[in-house]
Amino acid sequence: MTDTNIHGTGPMADSAGTPKDGAARKGTTASAQGGNTAPSEPGNRRTTPVAADPATASAGMTASAGPGDPATASAQDRSSRHSGPLTTRRARKRYWTIIAILSVAAVGIAFGLLAWDNPLPITDEGFWLIAGLRGRSLVVLIIVALCQAFATVAFQTVTNNRIITPSIMGFESLYVAVQTSAMYFFGVTALVELRGLVPFTVQLVVMVGLSLALYGWLLSGKYANVEVMLLVGVVIGGGLGSVATFMQRTLTPSEFDVLSARLFGSIANSDATYLPVAIPLCLIACAGIYLSSPRLNVLALGKGVTGNLGLNHTRETIKILVFVSILMAVSVSMIGPMIFLGFLVAMLAYQFSDTYDHRYVLPMAGLLGFVVLGGAYFVLKNIFYAEGVVSIIIEVIGGGVFLFVIMRKGRL
Q1: Domain with 168 in it
Q2: Count of domains in the chain?
Q3: Are the C-beta atoms of 327 and 233 separated by less than 8 Å?
Q4: 283-306: string of b/e by CB count within 10 Å (b at 16+)?
Q5: Residue 242 belongs to domain with CATH number
Q6: Is the pTM here over 0.85, yes or no?
Q7: Hey, what's the torsion of the CAs at 270, 276, 280, 281, to 10 degrees?
Q8: pLDDT digits (tens, 9 = 90+) for 215-247
């Protein structure tokens, strides 16, 4: 009678419990083929595990990892990658979370501007009457934020430089020269009367016309060059600024005081009569830039790559710069110069969006522009009672960010 024990010693084993050579070979072959611990014969009760296939063992280890395991999270993140602008699930979640936060902040700032210090309850009809009177300033803030944000991002893309802003083309200097000339030649009465739809439209036409002439001259022909265009813009802006400074020194103190109030970026400089012209121009130019986002992505690669990919670099650059000129002319003509607002908004948009695609950068920049500008206006008006002089905070914060970017690691 054959002795059987827990070690599976059967008829094919010797007295020491060690299988014979034939049984060992048969059991090894079965294990290699099946990848499990199946017995070599029906009567065999072998309990000692046999090494499984490496792939099966690896799969088992992966399956045993918990959902919170870092290796599992990393594998899932890699599996969700694709070739789009936001390559991972984490990047997409981060982007839309920031967009949601900025949207909530924008709604809160807008409601605060309409409801703060409103003596009537929200259910009263008089509350909405007061809110309607404040709505003009809110619309102006939205227009200026969109103009500065879209114009700066697009301008930095076509010039392939994230330091300079459209102000380098002399829009602010031209505005200062026009205001100073009106005061110098015609007196305080002319400067006060230099408001309304007609003067606003004339100023817009002059700014956009000068820009088109500059672009058509310096970006067409055999030796077209963006860098030369920028240098000419700097020279023109410096010349206009020098002329304006000379005229300002000849004014009386009272005239200079009135003029200085117009030369600061202020919501008080805007007029409700500007809106029928400013709103359509802003929407058309912003829509044109946003719809050109795929081309802006290509222009960011440089002139050589743009040509190799089938785009006319000069034509696309001039088209974008025309939109930029319209936006800057609208912004400057409405509230005055704001040099560092666009730079500050663009830098924050690049950091928060963390992508090359302008379809994502431009909406982020627009929301940031309203949050920054609206927040500064709310603080100055309701805490410091400065009545809309937003350029002070913008220039201080934006100038500090500009210096930080310039001096960071000694490179641009």
Answers
A1: 102-410
A2: 1
A3: no
A4: eebbebbbebbebbbbbbeebeeb
A5: 1.10.3470.10
A6: no
A7: -50
A8: 777 777 666 778 888 888 888 888 988 999 999
